[in-house]
Amino acid sequence: MLFSELGLSEQILRAVAEQGYETPTPIQEQAIPVILQGRDVLAGAQTGTGKTAGFTLPLLQLLQQAPVRKKPRPIRVLILTPTRELALQVYESVCSYGKHLPFFAEAIFGGVSSKPQIQKLQRGTDIVVATPGRLLDLIQQGYADLSQIEYFVLDEADRMLDMGFIRDIRKIIQLLPARRQNLLFSATYSPEISTLAEQLLSDPVEIAVAKRNSAAETVSQLVYGIKRESKRELLAHLIGDGRWQQVLVFVRTKHGADRLCKQLIKDGIRCAALHGDKSQGARTRALDDFKSGAITALVATDIAARGLDIDQLPHVVNYDLPQVAEDYVHRIGRTGRAGAEGQAISLVDAEEAQLLAAIEKLLKKSIPRVADTGYEKVSLEPVSAKSQPKAKPKAAAKPRSQARPGDRPGERARGGRPPRAAAGGARGR
Question: In this protein, which residues make up the domain named DEAD-box RNA helicase Q (predicted)?
């Protein structure tokens, strides 16, 4: 099928052609006609399959078919995303595909001054792409009005829930008009997503272009079993020996990202860190340098890297495995996008064996292990309850009527008060 067969206007088709696209991806081919029919949609697609265009193109078409002459322009389309990076990516797609149309769009997110965002909202905008927190702030200040929303999109819904945005999402939904078209897109599914879909969508068309919670077939996956203290050395070796020009490295913490980045720079590898404590300017510079090839390695946490759209990214490395198995699918989905091939490598120590087992259970397959890593072998078999040593049986309790050595004077075996717990007990870490 060609884009010209999907019922899109000449202006939109011209913009699509200028982006170099002729044929839609499976998610676009299935979603665009359904959205144009006015149906609610629950769409499941692996990251990198083109789902942003899958909802952006038909929404632009619907706006074009029913223009509104009011001034200032009311917000008619609201697209919620979990991160700043994804909000910018979706906003850029809206601008690219709608460049020949008389519509205005604005990206609303935190970490930057709200003044320019407020000015654009006051002038009027048709489409808003926003993160929940900053949008609610502007609503409470009276700068954003959602009462005339006609189309509501919840993008990366699974990540929204993972990041704890469910309360903000519900607050925003309560401010929307009852009559609207709803689109929910998610790369992975969970019981929470199903519950949210039931509450948000009305008689939705369900679209799934791949198995739920699965990785793209274009991504080859490998596991290196290695001690934690040897991970950095192996990573530097892989980058240097393989002459990698671009690799996205995932770590668990912000501090870990900064530390690993400094170590890689000492190894002679051009590197930058990307995490939530970085300013928006620093994050933008790091991402631009990575895309342009000015740096080789981008070390990022999950929150910062969600939604990154990097063309032809060849390598993703899990320096630390994610605590949530579904995040593994999101991580490796940064490579192997739009039909290109990619490689995902995980450096796994013995303490992460349980996390690896959870990932393989989610994928319903075993990830191949590299037999000879060049380092001391590490067992990646998860410790089961059966394999753990049995605890020694406790000694039988003495009859309460018997005195025991160390009993406090004046305490009786029966009816007496129990000794007080020692002060300064264990704290939750």
Answer: 1-29
Assigned fold of 3-208: Rossmann fold (3.40.50)
* DSSP letter for each residue of 28-70: HHHHHHHHHTT--EEEE--TTSSHHHHHHHHHHHHHHHS----
Six-digit token string for 366 = 């075993």
Is the Cβ–Cβ distance between 156 and 307 less than 8 Å? Answer: yes
Which of the 8 DSSP states describes residue 148?
Answer: T
Q: What is the signed CA dihedral for 27, 30, 33, 35, rounded to 10 degrees?
A: -60
Q: Which pLDDT score, from 0 to 100, does residue 206 have?
A: 92
The pLDDT of 399-420, averaged and rounded, is: 39
What's the mean pLDDT when you consider all of the chain? 85
The answer to whether the peptide bond before residue 74 is cis (omega within 30 degrees of 0) is no
H or E, element range at 263: helix 254-266
Which amino acid is present at 142?
Answer: G
Spans of all domains in the chain: 3-208, 219-363
Give the pLDDT score at 428.
Answer: 38
Give the model's confidence band at 383: pLDDT under 50 very low, under 70 low, under 90 confident, else very high: low
Q: Comparing C-alpha atoms, which of 30, 43, 49, 53 is closest to residue 189?
A: 43
The whole-angstrom separation of Cα 122 and Cα 105 is 12
Residues 6+ apart with CB under 8 A from 159: 82, 83, 187, 306, 330
Helices (H), 105-243: 115-123, 132-140, 157-162, 166-174, 191-200, 231-241
Q: What is the pLDDT of residue 215?
A: 61
The 8-class DSSP code of residue 149 comes to -
Return all residues near 284 (Cβ < 8 A) that are at least 6 apart: none
Residue 281 tokens read as 């300017």
Nearest to 256 by CA among 307, 345, 320: 320
Position 95 confidence tier, pLDDT thresholds 50, 70, 90 = very high
The DSSP-derived string for 327-387 is HHHHHHTTSSGGG--EEEEEEE-GGGHHHHHHHHHHHTSPPPBPS--SS-----PPPPTTT
Of 252, 373, 343, 236, nearest to 297 (Cα)?
Answer: 236
The answer to whether domain 3-208 and domain 219-363 are alike in fold is yes
Query: Is the per-residue pLDDT at 251 higher than 50?
Result: yes
186-210 exposure pattern, b = at least 16 Cβ within 10 A, e = fewer: bbbbbeebeebbeebbeebbebebb
pLDDT score for 138: 97
- Residues 206/210/212/213 CA torsion (nearest 10 deg): -140
Give, rounded to a whole angstrom, the gap between the first and last alpha carbons of the chain.
Answer: 56
For domain 219-363, give the CATH number: 3.40.50.300
More confident residue, 216 or 286: 286
